[in-house]
Amino acid sequence: MEQVYAYVAIACGMIISLGALAACFGISLMGGKYLEASARQPELMNDLQVKVFILAGLIDAAFIIGTGVSAWFAVSTFLK
């Protein structure tokens, strides 16, 4: 049973770490593209800003869901 606990701990760590890495990478790419677009067309800056914040929330929501799923795995495994 200890081996199952170890595998669950490794899986939860990978879910959280890879989710955080992907979220950081996605937000950085999106922020860079936003800066490029606002430099080319400054009149669209306000419209693009709203879309950037919505997408940043969705990207972070995916990471938070992964954190919740990994916590669920950890708690359900250790309660048995």
From TrEMBL:
Transmembrane ranges, per UniProt, are 6-31, 52-75
Name the SUPFAM superfamilies on file: F1F0 ATP synthase subunit C
Residues in V-ATPase proteolipid subunit C-like domain copies: 10-70
How does the record say this protein sits in the membrane? Multi-pass membrane protein
Q: According to its UniProt record, where is this protein mainly located?
A: membrane
Gene3D superfamilies assigned to the protein according to its UniProt record, in alphabetical order = F1F0 ATP synthase subunit C
Superkingdom to which the source organism belongs: Bacteria
Keywords for this entry?
Answer: ATP synthesis, CF(0), Hydrogen ion transport, Ion transport, Lipid-binding, Membrane, Transmembrane, Transmembrane helix, Transport
Signal sequence span is none
Q: Which InterPro entries match?
A: ATP_synth_csu_bac/chlpt, ATP_synth_F0_csu_DDCD_BS, ATP_synth_F0_csu_sf, ATPase_proteolipid_c-like_dom, F/V-ATP_Csub_sf
One Pfam family in the UniProt entry: ATP-synt_C
**Subcellular location field:** Membrane
Please give the family membership noted in the entry.
Answer: Belongs to the ATPase C chain family.
In Swiss-Prot or TrEMBL terms, this protein is called: Lipid-binding protein
Species classification: Bacteria, Pseudomonadati, Pseudomonadota, Betaproteobacteria, Rhodocyclales
